[in-house]
Specification:
Elements: E1 2-8, E2 13-21, E3 27-36, H1 38-41, H2 49-71, E4 80-86, H3 90-107, E5 111-115, H4 116-121, H5 124-127, E6 134-139, E7 144-151, E8 154-160, H6 166-176, H7 183-191, H8 216-229, H9 234-263, E9 272-276, H10 283-296, E10 299-301, H11 305-308, H12 312-324, H13 331-335
Helix pairs in contact: 2-3, 6-7, 6-8, 6-9, 7-9, 8-9, 9-10
Cofactor: Fe(2+)
InterPro entries: ATPase_NBD, Gcp-like_dom, KAE1/TsaD, Peptidase_M22_CS, TsaD
Organism: Amphiplicatus metriothermophilus
Length: about 350
């Protein structure tokens, strides 16, 4: 049994989780505490790095203490402490990593610096048996990538966004439609009563080879359609949100289909597609990917929404996976680990 505390502070969520990795490789989530800073950033229409960093300083210790209490453990019980070491907003990364370093040092535990993207990449294995290899579609606020995952620490990037990330496109489009933040869930709710077919938005990169993504043209197309209306009513906004969401979902599925072509030969008889990152919480996107996976004979694995968005459990789990794979730096190396922006 391996008990790991994970700390995540790379964006606007102050999060800590405690997990146990069983000898058979299964995960038990003992605690998962997330303090979301939405309200503090909402007046500015997006995440303000300075406010995020200050908010993490204010709450990170309480969130960690709460997670440990919920897990029924004290720091002395831990086998390791993991923390997001980048990429992310540097002020926030420094807060969480320094808090984790302090706990590791005080209790003489290994510190495992975790790359935030690796946290998302392995998050499906928190709640399901998702054996390697798999194709990962990582769709978050800062990243949109297709990655062939061969094992812990063995990642091959097949495609990524050439402009905005998927979540960023949801957030910017929500802002221009006056829906506020967080944009992804607001667009998804607004789209429920909308008719996607009312607007013909261009499919991004329709004639481009490979499996890169693009979202900025789609966001501009929504802006132009909204400007043509003048002052969009509630129904106009719903229709625009639905059209944006449907086009984004179709684009994600189309590019993922191309990545499947690239790896299918190496993936055996039971190929798997794993989706992770905050945007994976979106039902329309999940439905488009399910349709793709079913049509191609692939298994689709999507973590529950609370493990798709940023959380401490996925960082703890990535730490435990690294520990099990023998990929842990020494405490001295770990303490010297420089966070990256
Ligand atoms: O993974 P995450 O929590 O943080 C990053 O690492 O970026 O992802 C946050 C992103 C935000 O852009 C948010 O708008 C988006 O995920 N998101 C969604 C939904 N829920 C969160 N996008 C679309 N539909 C959703 N239901
Ligand atoms: Zn994230």
């Amino acid at each position: 049994m391996t008990l790991v505390l994970g700390v995540e502070t790379s964006c606007d969520d102050t999060a800590a989780g405690v997990i146990r990795r069983r000898p058979d490789g299964a995960c038990e989530i003992l605690a998962d505490v997330v303090w979301r800073q939405y309200d503090r950033h909402a007046p500015y229409g997006g995440v303000v790095p300075e406010i995020a960093a200050r908010s993490h300083v204010e709450r990170v210790d309480q969130v960690i203490v709460h997670a440990l209490e919920k897990s029924g453990h004290i720091p002395a019980d831990l086998d390791a402490v993991a923390a997001t070491a980048g990429p992310g907003l540097i002020g926030g990364v420094m807060v969480g990593l320094t808090a984790a370093k302090a706990i590791a040092l005080a209790h003489d535990k290994p510190l495992i610096p975790v790359n935030h993207l690796e946290g998302h990449a392995l998050s499906a294995r928190l709640t399901e048996a998702a054996p390697f290899p798999y194709l990962l579609l990582l769709i978050s606020g800062g990243h949109t990538q297709l990655i062939a995952v061969a094992g812990v620490g063995r990642y091959r990037r097949l495609g990524s966004t050439i402009d905005d990330a998927a979540g960023e496109a949801f957030d910017k489009t929500a802002k221009l439609l006056g829906l506020g933040q967080p944009g992804g869930p607001r667009i998804e709710s607004a789209a429920v009563g909308g008719r996607a077919s009312r607007f013909r938005l261009p499919a991004p990169l329709a004639r481009r080879e490979g499996c890169d993504f693009s979202f900025s043209g789609l966001k501009t197309a929504v802006r132009l359609a909204a400007e043509e209306i003048g002052t969009p009513t509630g129904q106009d906004v719903a229709d625009l949100a639905a059209a944006f969401q449907a086009t984004a979902a179709a684009h994600l599925a189309a590019r993922t289909g191309r990545a499947m072509d690239m790896v299918e030969a190496d993936f055996g008889a039971d190929p798997r597609l794993v989706v992770a990152g905050g945007v994976a919480a979106n039902c329309a996107i999940k439905a488009a990917l399910k349709e793709l996976a079913d049509r191609r004979g692939w298994r689709l694995i999507v973590p529950p929404p609370k493990y798709c968005t940023d959380n401490g459990a996925m960082i703890a789990w990535a730490g435990a996976e690294r520990l099990a794979a023998g990929l842990v730096p020494s405490l001295a190396e770990a303490l010297a680990f420089a966070p990256r922006a």
